[in-house]
Write a structure and sequence with these properties.
It is built from 4 helices and no strands. It is mostly helical and 96 residues long. Keywords: Membrane, Transmembrane, Transmembrane helix.
Length: 96
């Protein structure tokens, strides 16, 4: 998130007339920062930033959206577990 002075300088045009010490204004500046941030493409850091954004968003939601996020995470974990299970089966078949 960084220093509030840096955020105000970056988004000066978008924040005209807003109180820089207001929590909603700070949240809006953080949102603008996320929208304009350039992530490294096709790197581990870029993917992890995307996962972190998804986790933060899922933690803030409630109701139906949270249920959908939990189902998505569950399906991802199920895919990982099945991949490991089949890989271990192949490894054990080769060894024995």
């Amino acid at each position: 998130m960084g220093d509030s002075k840096d955020e105000n300088e970056k988004f000066q045009e978008e924040l005209i007339g807003l109180d820089p010490h207001d929590p909603e204004t700070k949240a809006f500046a953080d949102h603008l920062d996320k929208m304009k941030r350039q992530r490294p493409g096709f790197t581990v850091e870029g993917y992890l930033d995307g996962v972190q954004d998804f986790a933060d968003s899922a933690n803030r939601t409630t109701g139906h959206q949270r249920l959908v996020a939990v189902i998505i995470v569950g399906l991802i974990l199920l895919g990982v577990l099945l991949t490991i299970w089949f890989a271990l089966g192949d490894i054990l078949a080769i060894i024995f």
